[in-house]
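A quick aside before the break. I want you to see a complete sequence-to-structure record at least once, exactly as it would be stored in a machine-readable document. Don't worry about memorizing anything.
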Amino acid sequence: MSPLALSLGDPAGIGPELIAACWAQRRQVGLPPFFVVGGAELLVAAAASRGIDLPVVRIDSPDEAADHFADALPLLGAVDGPFRPGQPDEDGARLALASLEQATALVTRGAAAALVTGPIAKAELAKVGFSFPGQTEFVAAASNVAAEDAVMMLAGPALRTVPLTVHCSLASVPARLSVDLIVRRSTIVAQAMRRDFGIAAPRLAICGLNPHAGEDGRMGDEEIRIIAPAIAALRAAGWDASGPHPADALFTPRARATYDVAIAMYHDQALIPLKALDFDQGVNVTLGLPVIRTSPDHGTAFAIAGRNIADPGATIAAIRMAADLAGRRAAA
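That is the input. The structure line, written in tokens, reads:
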């Protein structure tokens, strides 16, 4: 299998130091070969902030990464920048974008097995012309996949969950929901569970929108008008879909044993339980793409960048999951 490509994320955040920490722990946690796009001096300085002496080797092709990975962090590309932890600026955003663009291009043309993206600051990227809501939509566009067919799943040891609506206001969620949206995105999720996670008959638990899943229309009728008909359509198509479930009871240990993935109606309904249960091991996985893309499920954490506080667990988990999914596809 080809090595994995890692993008830097915002250089003022914790992404670069966590990449360095992952390479330093590569043997003890059993990480597969990966290379980073850009940021040679940045990575060495970020590593030093954690007391890591990071050897870097420049490579000209992803194929060279495996030969050097045991002894040095392979790095492809000349883009670089200074280490200013906690001080995001437009130059840093340009570096983050250049790294993301180059890493994505390598993966979409098959030169790397999967893409692992570092955390970005969307507001900073917008200042330098990044027009996408997030990296999910960027990678989808680069893969020639419609944004609505790129589905964000959050996965950890205790839970997998998908928000059907993502970066939008809570007030706009009800109007965005439709039978077609739920069926289309839930089908993409179910297909990915089969293809990429090896679950032959995936069980989908679908949340209600309102308290108590609407309580027969007394607390809102979206469950009756939209969510229940979508579940019926999914069942008619042969998928094991259940609900609408009250979201306040769906994430208990007993409930989690009854499904493989929870389909939530909006961002926080999905991310709050995932981060409460699996914050240091949570992975953001983009489903529905011809390529594998994962990311640690946390942000740039500017406030703690460079202070040797950030836990590399989610980045380790993102690298492992990317390798597992790429290996499963390669073996199919």
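Two observations worth writing down. The chain has two domains: 1-146+296-332, 151-288. The chain has a mean pLDDT of 95. We'll return to this after the break.
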